[in-house]
Amino acid sequence: DAKTTQPPSMDCAEGRAANLPCNHSTISGNEYVYWYRQIHSQGPQYIIHGLKNNETNEMASLIITEDRKSSTLILPHATLRDTAVYYCIVRRDNTDKLIFGTGTRLQVFP
Amino acid sequence: DSGVTQTPKHLITATGQRVTLRCSPRSGDLSVYWYQQSLDQGLQFLIQYYNGEERAKGNILERFSAQQFPDLHSELNLSSLELGDSALYFCASSPTVSYGYTFGSGTRLTVV
What we know:
The structure holds two protein chains of two kinds.
Chain A lengths: L8 E5 L4 E6 L8 E7 L6 E6 L4 E2 L4 E4 L5 E6 L8 E8 L12 E6 L1
Parallel strand pairs in A: 1-9
Antiparallel strand pairs in A: 2-7, 3-4, 3-8, 5-6, 6-7, 8-9
Chain B lengths: L4 E3 L2 E4 L5 E6 L6 E7 L6 E7 L2 E5 L6 E5 L5 E5 L8 E8 L7 E2 L3 E5 L1
Parallel strand pairs in B: 2-11
Antiparallel strand pairs in B: 1-3, 3-8, 4-5, 4-9, 5-6, 7-8, 9-10, 9-11
């Protein structure tokens, strides 16, 4: 599995956009980029995933660079409930395991 | 409710003992994954089963074993428990032809 690199922590003001970067420079052509988050000690929660096109859902947007070596997760209007550890993961297909790195601890402040 | 059910939610046991953690995947999901998360540590992948067969193995100790039954539920057996085995144990399931994992709420194991 390709490795990912994320900043260990970030802060964001409530109501502002949170932009979480991820570097995956060794990603293979058939690997997807997935984002998960873990709030306190709860089970990780799926956010979004993509292959090469930008994706948007009700939770977030995913921007993948044209060379696919990096991506950015965007939470458009962060709330206090978005405080969590965010994980960027690359994965081949849906039968493949997810390998979690250390993630980015996002702190949303009032 | 994520649809993945883990029991028990909490478990306290003594060193040297053996415990069994249970996971019921979402209806129709064929893959089950087990993860360990020690205090302030990341999620460590332990093992994956797909339709009853072991598919991938991660950092799983020899004292630990798992299986997936014909009804697709899975059990993680931890034996000769040590203090360092105290952790959250998560189970996740995923379908074959759709995206994403779904995690259960975890079993918090405390070894005293």
